[in-house]
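Exercise (ungraded).
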Amino acid sequence: MPPQPARRSERSRRAILAATQELLTESGYAGLTIESIAARAGVGKQTIYRWWRGKGAVVLEAIAEHLPEATALPDTGDLRADLRGVVRATVAEFADTGASAVTRTLTVEILVDDELAGEVRDRLLRPRLEGVRARLEAARAAGQVRADAPLDQVVELVFGPVYHRWLLRTSPFTESYADALAKLVMTAVTPAGR
Amino acid sequence: MPPQPARRSERSRRAILAATQELLTESGYAGLTIESIAARAGVGKQTIYRWWRGKGAVVLEAIAEHLPEATALPDTGDLRADLRGVVRATVAEFADTGASAVTRTLTVEILVDDELAGEVRDRLLRPRLEGVRARLEAARAAGQVRADAPLDQVVELVFGPVYHRWLLRTSPFTESYADALAKLVMTAVTPAGR
């Protein structure tokens, strides 16, 4: 009995995403083409275009597939320690050459393609931003964050400076840099007198 | 007497930069070509390539020429007010469609071209970042900023969140957003007990 169409489709989809991931790792985004993905995955180009608008969209999905499941921030009860952890992890990611190349690619794509920008924001970034926001909300409920702190903006205070440093390549990413950033954010949100 | 070569060169250079600025305003970066700049400026393409490596480099110089002279931050003695002013101005710039399109262009260019990235950083951004840093240093000397605040990182705390919001198009740019950011930064740097 031949495989059912839905299962065959799913198999092709997985092969395409796996091929994309492999080619990205091997030779980066610049050399990646729909042709090379199709050849590696053993499918026709039309199969790729049936599901994705172009290279950027396939890459986005390949990356999203491989993201760690957990976007929730650990909650040890110690906001300072938890924030330091998330800032260190973010800094380490931006300092990593391979991960940085992928982020660079996606950043260029979202700057030139509005539709893809929305997908990247919603699928890759929003869960992460919301994880930090949820942790800040819990801390606020526990009296560890000022009642009037604008939490969406505090989230940007965590990620924005890292992005800025990465984008402008102004200075290196070190652990002491990460910890100093976490400390600045903590100072900005801690209620007076604590 | 024919014009001297140096003066003729300077006239061509100015014509090229003016043409670039006009074409950018009229039809944006995407449609801009070295050919269209040469035609508008009344010079040959080779004249442009003699001075610039490509489109990104000409655009960078055209923008740099038109930047306001003063990059120094006002120093009214009131750091809160001065920071609010710089954040409001930055937010207004990112909210402006025309300026935003140019920034988008330059951001793509610096992501794909290391050499241009260095020029953009040094010519367009560093003076601005250093203006804020100098203001923070004066405030620190006046006891309005914690002695141990890492000033380079405080500067990134001012600009990074705006860049992040702009890049990810997460939320609108309002004056109340700008003021809340300035307030967060102030809280992060103000010495305890003040």
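Further reading is listed at the end of the chapter. For now, observe: Chain A touches chain B at residues 104, 107-108, 110-112, 117-118, 121, 125, 129, 149-150, 152-154, 156-157, 159-165, 167-171, 177, 180-181, 184-185, 187-189 (CB under 8 Å). The mean pLDDT of chain A is 87.
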